[in-house]
Design a protein that fits this description.
- There is one protein chain.
- The model has no long low-confidence stretch (mean pLDDT about 90).
- The protein has 16 helices and 13 strands.
- Helix 11 crosses helix 13.
- By secondary structure, it is an alpha/beta fold.
Length: about 425
Amino acid sequence: MTQIHFNMVMTTSPNSHAQSVWAHPLDQHAAGLMSPDYWRHLAMTLERGRFDGVFFADTLAAGDSSAGETLAQGGVPRPDPLELLPLMGSVTKYLGLATTLSTVCMAPYLAVRRLGTIDNLSGGRLAWNVVTGYLASDFEALGLKQPEHDARYDQADEYMEICYRLWDAFPPEAIIADKASGDFVDPSLIKRVEYTGKYYSCSAFPTMVRSPQGRPLIFQAGASNRGMDFAATHADAVFALQPRTAWAGYLAQTRAAAERVGRPPPKVFFGIQPFIGKTEAEAQQRVAELEARVPIGTALARLGGLLGRVFSEDELDRPIEIRETQASQGWMTAVEHVSERGAPTLRQLALHFAISPMMPRIVGTPEQVADTIEAWWRETGCYGFTVTPNVLPDSLEAFVDGVTPLLQKRGLMRTEYAGTTYRENLLQQ
């Protein structure tokens, strides 16, 4: 029987995903950012809940135009997720470890070396969320000029080509460890990579052998036509931050993009944010409490940063207008579909974004949450869901202890993992 797959999406800033959540009395995420035990606990909880993996969303720099609010309200500190994955991998055997790494932050050769190290150390459990950089602040932090939207993907295509060649150039059988001859590797089996493109070049032997899963799984989140073509070309799975009303269209676009590039469509995981209570009223109260903690200026700063605009509090009760920007086209598309009842006001949109960054909320008891997940999965035919937490670790534990057992009883969620690599478990049916 086909089953539903789940990843948990995390951030390494004090707010997790919901703004000002660090101030909630039960939240331990901000206090645990620099605690190895905290990250280990999250990893063990996710594996106990039989999640495919943990997925770290990340940006390189703090906000620009509203940097003061971003910094003051919990935008930093922000540890590098790539450094946290070995901690989480050390106490788990099956949990996938997915990190975001921008193609603007380092040369392809360095990316392959860093990612390949963790992929091997974890026994083939690494995934890479490939992003091209949509925030101007990321480029400014590196002293770079931000390219046009589509040009970023053109550059990333070359970036990935170098990575593929490096991964393929060092097969495991090249390691012979022949003590008699003194040869540790057979150099005839390791290829030198020679590549010269418009944006990148590389001339080197790879230093990292392919992992037990071959190479890291590739995740992507592009939602523009160009971004979806990139995902269809490169990705094993897509993390789609889309409101519920946009899911059917997104799946159709994904299939069409896969047909254009001649590959099977990547596995689509839609983002959801459960709020779980003993009663529906208790769950609704959890949402209201979180929204009430967010200063409206902080909410506007997040929305403006993602859409590449500066919003004024004078506009709070006006329906929002969408204008063309060089920001993420995925966010722009999500904004257009956020309300089923017409255009939302800026206040509504900002507060929704502040707590639930454009993914649908599921609010209710464990049974109600499980029912909704099953219904949405059956209606859309998506592969699975990326769960966004709110208060941590409380919201994760509520899902693992309340929702996971219900889905397992229905035969809709695994009770045991299929293998030891991320690739094996992601493809498990």
